[in-house]
Write a structure and sequence with these properties.
One of its GO terms (biological process) is proteolysis. Belongs to the peptidase M14 family. This is Carboxypeptidase B. The chain is α/β, with parallel strands linked by helices and 397 residues long. It is 36% helix and 19% strand. The protein contains 12 helices and 12 strands. An 8-stranded mixed beta sheet has the order 5-6-8-7-9-12-10-11, sandwiched between helices. The chain has a 4-stranded antiparallel beta sheet with strand order 2-3-1-4, with helices on one face. Strand 10, helix 9 and strand 11 form a beta-alpha-beta unit. Helix 5 crosses helix 12, helix 6 packs across helix 12 and helix 9 packs antiparallel against helix 12.
């Protein structure tokens, strides 16, 4: 990676300034971090984007010339990449307070299952485009007629804190069962399906080739550009808004709903278990948000009041530990519209408790959250997840 890719944050005052960003994006390759697609940019919005080293001067000149208010969030991406890892010594063993490679995560799924046979089982729900098995962990004491909560991590390859949370959640479940009243009650009465990484091929690619990769790694016919955004690939207002039909874009919706093997495997599993799955949680980063449907339209879900009050209470719980502030609400109005997301799809399947977490931070590190923040991020998020799960258990339907 070039020495100094930079990440800018601009606050756009009016339509004219939005046009500046649009023309910038049409002239050069701009990697939008927040929002994740140029057409979603609107006045009064905070916009974060990455620019390649050789374009930095040109971009700064353009922003200054047009009096666009900006600041540099990350002035040297290479340094920020290195700074994610708190120690240069990378061990080959799995750690809950470090970012783990896919090989480490895969081995961990096997180990945690072997060590906790009465609480954890592992299955394969499909395989990725590149042929890797998609491991799913099932947590809970065996029982009859148990309802379940489905949680996934690692949709977008570069959001490393997301898989770290799924691993942390499993660790907490097995370590605190029998000690923590809430966790014990949850695991006695519910099953948790945890998919530690959905987009495995993309995740591996962020370790080997391009830390900023987001999409899957599938080939697109008629294009040299690789990959589909898995969170624009579900049959929920598919490709109608906040998604792109161009394979080279980071929010490419795919050739059809569930065109990606990964999203199809997830959707198939949920469809097969619809009678038992009562809540769906999907973990992303960054922005510190707790979102619920809808994102594909400016409309409220039927149980809006209920979802809003759960999100409010869960955000309060999360803040009790480190005072981390989360914003909550329906996706389209709280951040921006985006069609084809898994949360809207799950909700439309009849899973009435459907939430998306956008974990730390609010942009200082963005996708490059240092390992020193894994533990506090996971600890606080766990409080919110436990709150939601406990609520679901008390309101089974």
């Amino acid at each position: 990676m070039a020495v100094s890719h930079m990440v800018f944050r601009v606050i756009l005052q009016n339509e004219g300034q939005v046009e500046i960003i649009n023309s910038l994006a049409s002239k050069m390759q701009v990697d939008f971090w927040q929002p994740d697609y140029v057409t979603l940019v609107k006045p009064k919005m905070q916009v974060d984007f990455r620019v390649e080293a050789d374009k930095v001067f040109e971009v700064e000149h353009l922003l200054k010339e047009n009096k666009v208010e900006y600041r540099v969030l990350i002035n040297n991406l290479k340094t920020a990449l290195d700074a994610q890892f708190d120690s240069k010594a990378r061990s080959t063993s799995h750690s809950y307070e470090k970012y783990n490679t896919w090989e480490q995560i895969a081995a961990w799924t096997e180990d945690i299952t072997a060590q906790n046979p009465d609480l954890v089982s592992r299955s394969v729900i499909g395989e990725t485009y590149e042929g890797r098995p998609m491991y799913l962990l099932k947590l809970g004491k065996s029982g009859t007629n148990k309802k379940a909560i489905f949680m996934d991590c690692g949709f977008h390859a570069r959001e490393w804190i997301s898989p770290a949370f799924c691993q942390w959640f499993v660790k907490e479940a097995v370590e605190t069962y029998g000690k923590d009243n809430v966790m014990t009650r949850l695991l006695n009465n519910l099953d948790f399906y945890v998919l530690p990484v959905l987009n495995i091929d993309g995740y591996i690619y962020t370790w080997t080739n391009d830390r900023m990769w987001r999409k899957t790694r599938s080939k697109n016919s008629g294009s040299f550009c690789i990959g589909t955004d898995p969170n624009r690939n579900f049959d929920a207002g598919w490709c109608s808004i906040g998604a792109s039909r161009r394979p080279c874009e980071s929010t490419y919706c795919g050739s059809a709903p569930e065109s990606e093997k990964e999203t199809k495997a997830l959707a198939d599993f949920i469809r097969e278990h619809l009678s038992t799955i009562k809540a769906y949680l999907t973990i992303h980063s960054y922005s510190q948000l707790l979102l619920f449907p809808y994102s594909y339209a400016y409309k409220y879900p039927e149980n809006y009041e209920e979802l809003n009050s759960i999100a409010s209470a869960a955000a309060k719980q999360l803040a009790t530990l480190y005072n981390t502030e989360y914003t909550y609400g329906p996706g389209a109005t709280t951040i921006y519209p985006a069609a084809g997301g898994s949360d809207d799809w799950a909700y439309d399947q009849g899973i009435k408790y459907s939430f998306t977490f956008e974990l730390r931070d609010t942009g200082y590190y963005g996708f490059l959250l240092p390992e020193s923040q894994i533990k506090p991020t996971c600890e606080e998020t766990l409080l919110a997840v436990k709150y939601i799960a406990n609520y679901v258990l008390d309101h089974l339907y």
